[in-house]
Amino acid sequence: MPSQSTLSADDKAKVKSAVPVSPATNKIFYATLARVYYAYPDSNKWAYAGLQGALTLTRSNVTSALFFNLVDLSGTRGIIWSHEFYQGFETEYNTDRPWFHSFPSDECMVGFVFVDESEARSLEKKIKEKSGKKAKAAKSKKHKSSSTIKASGKIDKSLISAPTQGSFKHVAHMGYDADKGFTSRNVDPSWTTIVGNLEEKGVDREIIERDMEFIRDYLKTHPEAAGEEKPKKQKSLKPPPPPSR
Asked: Which among 148, 162, 181, 225 is least buried, having the fewest CB atoms inside 10 angstroms?
């Protein structure tokens, strides 16, 4: 939490009591005073959710997930509202006004009204920084962990994806040329990308040429092979105009 903020020493104590901080529990990157608004039930109008307190940007050191936590400062209820960041959250977080920010949730748009505009800006910077780093780390980890060739030097079957069902055309020729790479005749274009994708994933041309028979046999016996599923996109919601302070 910032050393100087609108939160008093007593407020900070309540925050740390509600959101334990340690290497084994959580890390609080920022905290500031805020109220929560929903664009619900009318999606064109903001309504005060009746929730206010210390809004924290928190990372769980157990799951590495980022959260908003709202801590009750007027009583002893602890965390009274929480929202976990989803993939791409940093690109969906909107600065509608210096004192009002919003983002889409599963059910509706959520808005924050801040007491201090400078703290609102600082929170936004932390969100972009921490959420962006998490996204890059996840992408890097996925790239490093993707295995293209097994220890034996053979092509991993999991890398071979079949084209769309029903798109197959008679295969007159499937082969590999040292100069031209993967070649084919009378083959649906989606099939010609299979080996091309293997090359993009780092499989050496020599290995592809050597294992062409294996690739053909695998595709014949595993027609159900499918490509990677695209991640579910968050709902695209248009926020209504910010409420008055």
From this structure: 181
For residues 61, 66, 67, 73, the Cα torsion angle rounded to the nearest 10 degrees is: 60
- Given a contact cutoff of 8 angstroms between Cβ atoms, the answer to whether 129 and 54 are in contact is no
State the amino acid at position 209 in one-letter form: E
pLDDT for res 243: 79
- What is the amino acid identity at position 92? E
Residues 106 and 22 in one domain: yes
Structure confidence by residue, pLDDT tens digits, 24-38:
999 999 999 999 999
- Asked if residues 57 and 91 have their Cβ atoms less than 8 Å apart, the reply is no
The answer to whether residues 50 and 91 belong to one domain is yes
Sequence-separated (6 or more) residues with CB below 8 Å from residue 243: 37, 46, 48, 100, 111, 113
Q: What is the pTM of this model?
A: 0.58
